[in-house]
Structures are given as structure tokens and as C-alpha cells.
Automatic annotation (TrEMBL):
InterPro entries: Cpn60/GroEL, GroEL-like_apical_dom_sf. Keywords: Chaperone. This is Molecular chaperone GroEL. Belongs to the chaperonin (HSP60) family. Coiled coil: none annotated. One of its GO terms (biological process) is protein refolding. PANTHER family: 60 KDA HEAT SHOCK PROTEIN, MITOCHONDRIAL (PTHR45633). It comes from the Eukaryota. GO terms for molecular function: ATP-dependent protein folding chaperone.
Length: 101
């Protein structure tokens, strides 16, 4: 089975959220910015999970196939961004991303 979801955020926040999902699921973000289009995407580019629940407002990924080391590295990267941020709003959004990972 496969599913496609739309990221609800915009701009750089959207790109970062999609990268979080890719790392969690062991997939690759498909974007022309990195030289990937739907036309040249293979099954190896898609992530996997034991279960994905999708509603209008939320997507929950359970048992993503991403490497634990990659997920932990992503969490550390986000925590560093939290330390470097001066915006309370940005810090809150970054903390939400850590919690989701």
C-alpha cells in the first residue's frame, strides 16, 4: 500500500517537515531542488512504515523504517537549531518537531 500526504506548513518549515518524514520512514524527499522528480522516482526512494494513519489534520507514522542513528542525528540537529534560535515561535515549532520524531 502507498499513501501521499500534503504538508500543511509552508516554505522552509515545509521542507524541513518533509525531510523529517523521509528520515523517519527511510525514504527520500522528492523535490526538483535535489534533482528528483516523480518521473524518475523509484521504489528505493520511498520510505516504509508498519502503519500510517492519515486524517484531514494529522499523519501518524508508526514503525518507520528509518535508521535509528539517522533519526537521532536529526533530533540533535533540531535541538541545535533550538539553542541557536532567538524566536520563541521558532523554538516552539522546533520542539514540536523533536517531539514528533
Amino acid at each position: 500500500k502507498a499513501t501521499v500526504v500534503r504538508a500543511l506548513c509552508l516554505g522552509d518549515r515545509r521542507k524541513e517537515m518533509l525531510q523529517d518524514i523521509a528520515i523517519l520512514s527511510g525514504g527520500t524527499v522528492i523535490s526538483e531542488e535535489v534533482g528528483l522528480t516523480l518521473e524518475n522516482t523509484t521504489l528505493d526512494d520511498l520510505g516504509t512504515a508498519k502503519r500510517v494513519n492519515v486524517t484531514k489534520e494529522n499523519t501518524t507514522i508508526i514503525g518507520g523504517a528509518g535508521a535509528q542513528a539517522d533519526i537521532e542525528a536529526r533530533v540533535e540537529q533540531i535541538r541545535k537549531q533550538i539553542e541557536d534560535s532567538s524566536s520563541d515561535y521558532d523554538k516552539e515549532k522546533l520542539q514540536e518537531r523533536v517531539a514528533k520524531l
